[in-house]
Amino acid sequence: MKVLLTGATGYIGKRLLPLLIQKRHHIVCLVRDKDRFHIPSSFQSSITVIEGDLTTFESLNSIPEDIDAAYYLVHSMSSASNYQSLELKSALNFRKKADHIGIKQVVYLSGIINEYKLSPHLQSRKDVELELNKGTFALTCLRAGIIIGAGSASFEIIRDLVEKLPVMITPKWLNTKCQPIGIYDVINILIKSLGNPQMLNTNFDIGGPDALSYKEMLLKFAFVRQLKRYIYVAPVMTPRLSSYWLYFITSTSYKLATALVDSMKIEVICRDNRINQLLEIEPVSYVESLKSAFSEIKDEKILSSWRDALIVSNHDFKLSDFIMVPTYGCFIDKRIINVSKPNVTLEKIWRIGGFTGWHFANWLWQLRGFIDRLNKGVGLRRGRTHRTKIESGDVIDFWRVVYANKDEGRLLLYAEMKLPGEAWLEFNLDGRQLTQTATFRPKGLLGRLYWFAVLPFHHYIFNGMLKQLA
């Protein structure tokens, strides 16, 4: 079967793709930026990659005419102030294109929307479903609540809260009930829904066996981690305060925190579990899904992470827009040093950020990250997905990887922190010579003043970091 996969670079898409290939389907991956999509050599004969933007109908002309079925895994939650209209426009364009080329089935992963009053995010999910339902294809809508897996937004937010706070004074929405489901069960359901006659033209709620409050989820997480935690629910805490609480403690962005708080006040409980009988599956418990996630983390086999998605950043761009580092009108800090052991230096560069830190004056990096958080920026809390592996499109603290080629010894990062301008940081190891270049393109007078204000810190930090790498 020839299957169109939208959202192929997302958390779900990255995990679904190899399993679809194992089922001997040919997958057409629709991505906005080819530079962010990395295909293992063993998959190349089973994948066709096309570039397109669902918000622009003309860009979808590259979709082949012989597609049998499609997965709709696209959403832009809080990446822009008008994300609801963007999502609806994307669904409309997709539906028109799918109708035109005669796709037989579309599988859409949505959210549980059983409450009468929905948050803007969940209402947007419902609006997309209604739009897709207008298509001539058979729609299979799978409505999920909280998805638990290594690298998932829900898992990482819960992890941040539990591991950082021994005592929590929390908003009252922590008493809201939800029905979490493990990522492996979600992927299994997505796979088994494809081409299944019983799944056509219908919708299902999907969830695990446990209906828990968010407070119970935090306490069970603490139990799995063998941590003693105390949680007290405050009777009064405004949505704004709740958003700030979530934003400052976890690695989420402020916009995403606001959207999550709105959604967390809505119960997301499955209507029934009939899909489990239809597909002959038995979803694992919340505790078991947590254990699976930690097993994946321990083995360093995290297949995808929400941190790498552009919705977590303050930017929405294509990597190719920033791979050519400008020089005109820029301030450049270039330092060169000879290294004694190139292989060791290269490994240090490829471990930079995250758990390892920045090899020198980490407290200053952390201070810069804290200042960024105060300005509603991304800060340092995003870390990185893998300790040793880097690919273009990945996140490293408050940087985005624009280019990474270990054979060339080149790593190029673009800053996603709040700045009065744009910034790049590049490492280039050529033989025994390491070149470290910081480039800043200021925006107006404020940008120039900023550069000169941080210049003494740059000299101290960049010089020290270069020596440590060498």
List the helices and strands and how they pair.
Layout: E1 2-6, H1 11-22, E2 26-31, E3 47-51, E4 69-72, H2 83-101, E5 105-111, H3 120-132, E6 138-144, E7 147-148, H4 153-164, E8 167-170, E9 177-178, E10 181-182, H5 183-193, E11 202-206, E12 212-213, H6 214-224, E13 230-233, H7 239-249, H8 254-264, H9 274-279, H10 286-298, E14 331-338, H11 342-350, H12 362-374, E15 395-396, E16 399-405, E17 410-415, E18 421-430, E19 433-442, H13 444-469
Parallel strand pairs: 1-2, 1-4, 2-3, 4-5, 5-6, 6-11, 7-10, 8-13
Antiparallel strand pairs: 9-12, 14-19, 15-16, 16-17, 17-18, 18-19
Helix pairs in contact: 1-5, 2-3, 4-6, 6-10, 7-8
Molecular structure report:
By secondary structure, this protein is an alpha/beta fold. It folds into 2 domains: 2-308, Rossmann fold (3-Layer(aba) Sandwich), CATH 3.40.50; 313-469, Alpha-D-Glucose-1,6-Bisphosphate, Chain A, domain 4 (2-Layer Sandwich). It has helices spanning 11-22, 83-101, 120-132, 153-164, 183-193, 214-224, 239-249, 254-264, 274-279, 286-298, 342-350, 362-374, 444-469; strands at residues 2-6, 26-31, 47-51, 69-72, 105-111, 138-144, 147-148, 167-170, 177-178, 181-182, 202-206, 212-213, 230-233, 331-338, 395-396, 399-405, 410-415, 421-430, 433-442. The strands form 5 sheets. The protein has a 7-stranded parallel sheet with strand order 3-2-1-4-5-6-11, with helices on both faces. It has a 6-stranded antiparallel sheet with strand order 14-19-18-17-16-15, covered by helices on one side. The longest helix has 26 residues, at 444-469. The model has no long low-confidence stretch (mean pLDDT 87).
